[in-house]
């Protein structure tokens, strides 16, 4: 069974999925959010869950640098709660501080153009969130 990683923002949702053994994360897509139709966002996630045989979902939780949770973090917590109720799957929140910054640095070092970076940054952030979760799980045994 695979793990789905989500980087939830107000405009997009970056999506990554693990391999069947839970060792590596691969970017899947970036979902364009539907402002007044959140159900459409969840419908696409439902499709991805079924297509990829997902058993667990990881949602990035943006925290302030001092560890507190601001409006973005509260939005992600609410999204995770709705996802948990809708899917009946375990949904874990994972600290995502600096995941987007790290994804941006990686893309810049790979000499990806600014225009292309903008299209894949959320997907790459989801990969980093999910890979961090998978690595942490491996080290915990």
Automatic annotation (TrEMBL):
Keywords: Cytoplasm, Hydrolase, Nuclease, Ribosome biogenesis. Its EC number is 3.1.-.-. One of its GO terms (biological process) is rRNA 5'-end processing. GO terms for molecular function: hydrolase activity, acting on ester bonds; nuclease activity. InterPro entries: RNaseH-like_sf (IPR012337), YqgF (IPR005227), YqgF/RNaseH-like_dom (IPR006641), YqgF/RNaseH-like_dom_sf (IPR037027). Residues 1-103 form the YqgF/RNase H-like domain. Its main location: cytoplasm. It is found in: Cytoplasm. One of its GO terms (cellular component) is cytosol. Coiled coil: none annotated. Gene3D superfamilies: YqgF/RNase H-like domain. Belongs to the YqgF HJR family. Could be a nuclease involved in processing of the 5'-end of pre-16S rRNA. This is Putative pre-16S rRNA nuclease. It comes from Evansella caseinilytica.
């Amino acid at each position: 069974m695979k793990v789905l990683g989500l980087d939830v923002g107000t405009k997009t949702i970056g999506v990554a999925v693990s391999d069947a053994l839970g060792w590596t994360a691969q970017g899947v897509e970036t979902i364009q959010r539907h402002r007044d139709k959140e159900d459409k966002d969840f419908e696409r996630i439902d499709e991805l869950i079924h297509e990829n045989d997902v058993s667990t979902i990881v949602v990035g939780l943006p925290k302030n640098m001092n560890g507190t949770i601001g409006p973005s973090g509260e939005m992600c917590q609410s999204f995770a709660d709705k996802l948990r109720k809708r899917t009946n799957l375990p949904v874990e929140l994972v600290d995502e501080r600096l995941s987007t910054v790290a994804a941006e640095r990686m893309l810049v070092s790979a000499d990806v153009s600014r225009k292309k970076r903008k299209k894949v940054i959320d997907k790459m952030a989801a990969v980093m969130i999910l890979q961090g979760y998978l690595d942490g799980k491996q080290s915990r045994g």
